[in-house]
Queue: 2 jobs
Job 1
Amino acid sequence: MSIRIGNSCINCQNLQPNETCKTHGVKVSTSYTCDSFEMKTALKKDLNCSSCARFEGPTCANPKKATAGMLCSHWAPQNAQA
Ligand code: SF4
Ligand code: SF4
């Protein structure tokens, strides 16, 4: 299985309020992910540098250009460790 920073159960639409995965029927953690990951629709609308864990940090891919409203392919959810 691939290891990815941007996709985790916390931003997957299959995560249910009781921290159970709707797809697999098991308890999951915010640090898990899998190949059935589906990005939450609400989060898709809010993808930009201000919601990126890397914003103003050492792992930002575009530190000179990063600003609210911009987005690049290195975006990571704020619960992730960038
Ligand atoms: S489908 Fe995969 S990524 Fe989504 S909540 Fe279930 S285990 Fe997590
Ligand atoms: S430029 Fe990319 S990595 Fe940097 S804060 Fe914006 S989305 Fe994140």
Job 2
Amino acid sequence: MAENRIRVLLVHAFPDTTAYITALLGLERDISLEGSVANGSAGLKQASEAKPDVILVGSELPDTDSAGLVRQITTKLPRTGVIVLVTADDPNELRRYMQAGARSFLVMPFSSEQLAESIRDVYRRMRSVKVAAEPRHSAPAGNAGQGKLVAVFGPKGGVGKSTLAANLAVALRRNAERKVALVDCSFSFGDLHLFFDIKPERTIVDFIDCGPDGDLDTLEQVLRRHSSGVALLARPVRPEHAEMITTDGLRHTLDVLTQGYDVTVLDCPASYDDRVLMALDRAHVIILIVTPDLGTLYNATTFLSLTRALGYSRERIMIVFNRYDSQGGASVKEVEDTLSHAVEFKVPSRWRDFSSALNSGVPYALSHPNSELARTLASLADMVLKKCDGQ
Ligand SMILES: Nc1ncnc2c1ncn2[C@@H]1O[C@H](COP(=O)(O)OP(=O)(O)OP(=O)(O)O)[C@@H](O)[C@H]1O
Ligand SMILES: [Mg+2]
């Protein structure tokens, strides 16, 4: 256990606070306080030698400005997360610490749970930064092909991303006769393979492991081809392997997919993880799925402001209103007014059809090709292709 503990350094001027934090952390089995010092210069020296996972920095130090110390630490030790301990949550002060590179802050007094959770949270976030900061290869520039990338994104879990991504891929393949790949970008908990009753034996990790030499031939060995003709790139077999998928590795994978497939559909998780943002950045079309509940609409509004801040054109975003006819939910007009964006496509609520399709491992668009719902999904595919052609 000892070697797996989160290693923490404390830099704080007041002995009483140091004693309090030492006592609190003494109770945590997964956190080890490796040392404590009372001023900035000793803090920087000890940090450089011990390279702890997390450093707690007090806001009042005798010899240095705390924000300056945070900046020095985060520049010198980009893999160490800094949490600032403040006496009041003055927004201007907090902004200064965050700009200096602090990952979090705690307002005193705090409980042992708040302290431990904050340390664990920063540690987890720094670990994912480490993975991104240490790409095993960088993607060769400009190797993208002619194929189009369609990201299916939803601002909340369970809105129907995988259901619509799977059926869209089938409809693009069967009705529009395109060469179609489908990527499960929920690298830890993705379930896209279940929609096709496919076992994820060879997965995206096997391709990313090949580094920049991984080409279309290599990728074809990893893709699982379904009887519908859709080629699935499944999520890693083990959830902990999700961390092996770097942003560069995913970028390279998407580039290679565009060399061999007319359309690649990306089933993205409801997250702003670096890899998801890169995929959204690269997508020719982003399908934003919303459902008629307040939480989803609120998060969708935040997502749309983010896309504006990132400079995405409105034309790239296509709002699909899933389960639009659910009883008691928001109307199309209410959704459009809330989002200030037109709803371009509506999918009815058909719980029994979609869940029995999932249970049988055959996407609905494939098992009931002549049904009205399958025709709706086919027109979704047509609209997506038109949007792709416009990009
Ligand atoms: N139009 C619909 N009508 C009725 N049920 C639906 C509809 N679309 C999706 N569902 C159901 O909603 C549930 C969640 O769907 P799905 O797994 O596709 O969501 P998700 O957004 O991919 O979730 P996650 O965020 O967990 O990946 C499933 O049971 C699915 O059958
Ligand atoms: Mg899903």
